[in-house]
Amino acid sequence: MIYTLIRQLIQIISCRGYRIQGSCMDAHVSHFGPAMSDASEEGELLEVKKGPWTVEEDARLMNYVSVNGEGRWNSVARFAGLKRTGKSCRLRWLNYLRPDLRRGNITLQEQLLILELYSRWGNRWSKIAQHLPGRTDNEIKNYWRTRVQKQARQMKCDVNSKRFRDTMHNVWMPRLRERIESLSAQPGDATDPVSKPSGNPAVYRPVQSGSSVFYSSFSSENSMASSDSYADNSLASDGSCITEGPNYQWPENWLDLPGGQEYESSYWADEMDRMVENLWNDESIWALQKQLFDD
DNA sequence: AACACATTCAACCGCATCGGC
DNA sequence: CGCCGATGCGGTTGAATGTGT
């Protein structure tokens, strides 16, 4: 027991590589270093920088990883000339610099999938993130806490309660499907990028045209399934898509809009943004929630 | 314009787990 | 089998930003 505690303590000290000297969020706290081997070898104290990353640090990290690949994060920190911990480098890469990251608001389809997967796995954020290409566990976790949990708080119910689960399955998820379908039902009007305001090209990446597997597996037919059976309608226990087989891999363009509209410079980008923003402020959702629990 | 309060999200932390030796 | 460094995960924090008064 005591041994385990001591070991953990040593690990924390060596992992963090410094002795705390200020508040944890100070941007340029000086720390005493660490890596005892380094300290003994070099006979000097190394600083570990914390707080927001600078453009130069990002460039160094990107450059190093693009040449040497991911992994061995402590080495990355050392050889890229970054005064950061390996953990900090890893996090920065995974959550911000990775080239395959998808930026911008969480789309309706993604929101629906998050609700689906949360109801199956709970707060296994990294596992959920594996099924949302380009999204990070941090992003999903933040989305959950700032949007969904907030909604739960306003309902004055616990996220682990039956009431919350029922609302999720019987109100939010069907409403998301409705919105997704209502958007997919009006492609003619929505595809004119000239007469409609354009989206932010920096936010949305261009995507290939193509049909949406995702859409085909979430039809309105199962939109009001009971909370107990719901989760099995479209996802296998490992999260794969039953419709497409247990080992189905989501295609790269699985989040494409129906009909092959592109996000970039399209009316769809703005429309999706608007819908996402409005979902949690939707009066009719409150009415439905009320109706559900007044019965 | 100035301030207070609310919200968002990047980055941190501690702990758990993995994998090489 | 146990040790130990590296990595991964989920919870938390607080600076930056947005919104209301």
From TrEMBL:
SMART domains per record: SANT
UniProt signal peptide? none
Q: Which UniProt keywords apply?
A: DNA-binding, Nucleus, Repeat, Transcription, Transcription regulation
Pfam family for this entry, one: Myb_DNA-binding
Where does it sit, as one GO cellular component term?
nucleus
Which stretches make up the HTH myb-type domain?
47-101, 102-152
- Localization per record: Nucleus
The principal localisation class reads nucleus
Q: What is this protein called?
A: Uncharacterized protein
Q: Which residues form the Myb-like domain?
A: 47-97, 98-148
Query: What is the protein's species of origin?
Result: Trapa incisa
Any one GO MF annotation of this record: DNA-binding transcription factor activity
Q: Which domain of life is it from?
A: Eukaryota
